[in-house]
Specification:
5-stranded antiparallel β-sheet, 4 helices, 5 strands
Length: 143
Amino acid sequence: MQIINQMKLEFLSVPENEGFARVAVSAFAVQLDPTLDVLADIKTAVSEAVTNAIVHGYPNRLGMVQISAVLKSDGLLEISVSDQGTGIPDIQKAMQPFFTTQPEKERSGMGFPVMQTFMDLVQVESTPGQGTVVRMEKRLRRA
């Protein structure tokens, strides 16, 4: 399918930027006239992915988080959230409900399951010491 629009954002891994990312991606998605429920799904998934990058990608330092989004002519929204942080040693384990590497900080371990609930597709690529890329797709309208 043909790309009808695309965008890229890059911001510092400070918690305040999670809200910025959520709103920016949902404002971008509005071009395909999704329902409010679909926009809420997108905001939630982006919030979880960005929070993971901030909290787990850069637990003891600041770094950069990148988001890219593509709108396609068939109504598909593709989102990528990436960092160059600590990476994930075991992606399958990390994607299990309630798995957390920070139980002392009262993390629920539901980030990836929430993304999977609200998006049509979630794929994670990660290399320890090099970072993580979370790719998500959401069909905003039928072709």
